[in-house]
User: Fold these one by one.
Assistant:
Number 1:
Amino acid sequence: AIPDVWHLALAGTAVLLVTKILLVAPMVRWAGVDTLASWRVALGDYRTAVPSLVEFRDAYLGFERENTEIGKVPYGLTDQRFARAYYELGRLFFQKQDWKECRYWLTKAGSAGDCRGDASYQYWMGLCHLNLGASEEARACFLREMELDPSEPGPLYNMACAYARQENPRQAVLWLKKALDAYPPFGDVARR
């Protein structure tokens, strides 16, 4: 017969293991769901994609909080398995115009995956920075977006906006002229 102390130790270990499984299981499950959720997001069907994304976010943040000690780097799960989930969460919060959350998740996506070479990623990240008052970081993203997709006129206009927010009218007008040369309908947007 096993002494009572061993029974308590085994029971404690079992409780700890079950807690970890319940917390991490939604994140592991996400790896198989992310393609479906991505398609739903891409098709604008947030009603069905968002629950999976929010479940993932809540589980991830809970795990991170549980495994973070004050003054130490979080254990975290910033890896490629979850890069698409981070990316989709960034897109979700972009749609909600929650710029701080958007930047948090897109930064994780950039650290975990290869999305930094994606023009759309640079656009979203640039607008996050711009709306959070980080104009220099926003300009760096818009310049990178121009490198990745030179035919897209949007970054030219966004550069004008970034310079305007920094109260640099000379550069703002220069970039606005470039934007208008590349895509004349921006004139209607600029007049508003």
Number 2:
Amino acid sequence: WLLVTVCSFMIYFKGYIIQMPDHAAGFGLGEHPVRFIKYCLTFLGGSFLGVRTAPVMISTILGAGMGLVFLWGCFLDRFDFKKNILKFCLVFFVFLTAAALSSGRMHLGVAQALTSRYKIYSALFPVLMMSLLMSGNKAETVAGRTLFAFLFCGMLLGTALNWREGVLEGRVWKQAQQINKQTLYFFETAKN
């Protein structure tokens, strides 16, 4: 499946043309490695907090923390790789998604990684981390339970904040639609 994933990724980006004239084509890691990594980490930590409630730095730190927890779990054999191969493939998918988004969107600014259309992808990472922690070799340790509790509480907080933010955005959108409707009505009924 890993080979299929990599081949799909390569086929998708074969012949990819950037349509913005001020943005050079190519993989962003080579041109702006710090911005690329910051965008990836912000994307990975973006599911915990809402766009308005979270400065970019907090999401970047959360993404880096979860990435370090994943590396810690892999290097210290905290996760059972043979039992959790699908979960590892899904984590790899999230990392590839972060890399693809970073490559194509980092020129728009790191804060753009927190937009709602990417939340579903970034939310997969902490969910997979919780699942790996629960099914790992040493999940019953204090560190494993603490990390699980942190991720779980963070996901609950993120869900509440993102729901609140979505409701507020919906209200603003509804008001804008009403104003547009009134403007259009007055424009159509105006006499020359």
Number 3:
Amino acid sequence: LCAHANRGATRVGAGDSEGLAETARAIEELKHRNYFYLGIPLVNQANSYLHLGSIPDALRADLEAADWMRTREPHRLGLALLEVASFEFLTGAWDSALSRAKEYELTSGVDATLGSVAPGIEARVAARRGDARQAGDLGAEALRRARTENVAQTIGPELAESAWAALTLGDRDTASSLLAELLDIGLDPDVFL
């Protein structure tokens, strides 16, 4: 059943929206059987909703995943917390996003895999609230961590956000350099900006 949940999410990622129904059926059956490791299928369902453009449904699925992982899979809780924080940021629930980012750092540690995401979210909130200096400082920390992690899914957003913060502070040279780095590693800035 886990394989069906994951296959459904893969189908959605490949453009087949019917994969979402396969994932949902598998998750319901896993719940019915009281399957212990339900967190990752729920996170995959959230990502399927995101791929289909439904941030509220993605947030709902990730909140369910976080609740599940908090009691049954605490070693995986960080992943759900970061996704919830990201979706809350996108919906404008910035204070809640900041709380989730802090909870991630408290439960997972600042040196954890994906540790750049929490200060990255803090930087994005600071930037949207008009505090370019704090956004730049937090963004620099997020970028430092992302470079250490060397994971494309974290370094891309952090390079883009740091470039935006540099531009906001009037530092066009740094912004150009960061965008060039984004292109050099093969990532499209339009995806992140």
